[in-house]
Specification:
Layout lengths: L7 E5 L3 H12 L3 E5 L3 H20 L5 H10 E4 L10 E4 L5 H14 L5 E4 L6 H6 L7 E6 L8 E6 L5 H13 L3 E5 L7 H17 L5 H12 L5 H8 L1 H15 L8 H8 L18
Bound molecules: acetoacetyl-coenzyme A.
Amino acid sequence: MDANAIKTIGVVGAGQMGAGIAQVAAQCGLDVILVDSAAELAARARDRIGDVLAKVVAKGKMHAGDRTGILNAIKPTGSRADLKAADLVIEAAPENLELKLSIFSELDKICGPDTILATNTSSISITKIAASTRRPEKVIGMHFMNPPPLMKLVEVIRALQTDQPTYEATIALAERLGKTTVTSKDVPGFIVNRVLIPLLNEACFALDQGLATPEDIDKGVQLGLNHPMGPLALADLVGLDTCLSIAEVLMREFGDDKYRPSPLLRQYVAAGWLGRKSGRGFYFYPNS
Ligand code: CAA
């Protein structure tokens, strides 16, 4: 599939990553089919995109008509069968291997034979996901950073089976979306999370040890290392459940204890304190 022939993108999962990817694609002139388990969830995600873009319009940085055009390009649905019309599908479902395998085997049946099936997984093996389809050579990792509309990077991860045309089309598409790419082998955590998750996890250990307040841990890293936000605030943005599941994949797959998740991180997830999306993580988010 030539990247210029890609007109319609399917996005599976209308959470913060799926909605952000849908927004980026629609802003770049692509039609987007946004699927979640219920049409209402996908429609709500489109409403949230509308709210964000209304603020951009209010600041005079976008024409109201462009906002309408972007929203009209996103078709929310509760039915994966609608992805038949997609030239490329990006799966952005929760980090659960069984769930992803079942989604890919279903997409394989629904989508046309030339459709590229990409996953936004942050740590799960693309090679395993590819093997659940009859088109493993057309399966690839396309890992956006959170929040997708503001972050420049897309990590492209080749499964063992991914062929060169699929790889080249994915790189070209990411560039069409205004992103810079890096290419990683299919090794747990890829590049970004291999480095990031130990940092976030270490901040949790430090907090658990009473090293400093959350605010001072964050301020120390933010101002001391010139990071845009501190590790605990970033963990809240990524989602503490997502951080934990990536840490678990790193520990299991490398068999190395240095990746063991902090007990505090586990407790927060057990309490349902998942960060921004649940209104509470290391900080409180009353308006989420
Ligand atoms: N669409 C369009 N515009 C948007 C927007 C959206 N969805 N969201 C915000 N904006 C606009 C805002 O309106 C604002 O506009 P103005 O400049 O005109 O005011 C502008 O974008 C900046 O918004 P903010 O003021 O909210 O942004 P900020 O300057 O505070 O930066 C941030 C926010 C980009 C998140 C920054 O704090 C940052 O870079 N943090 C680190 C994020 C990071 O590391 N992400 C990667 C996580 S790792 C990952 O994702 C991988 C994984 O698998 C876990």
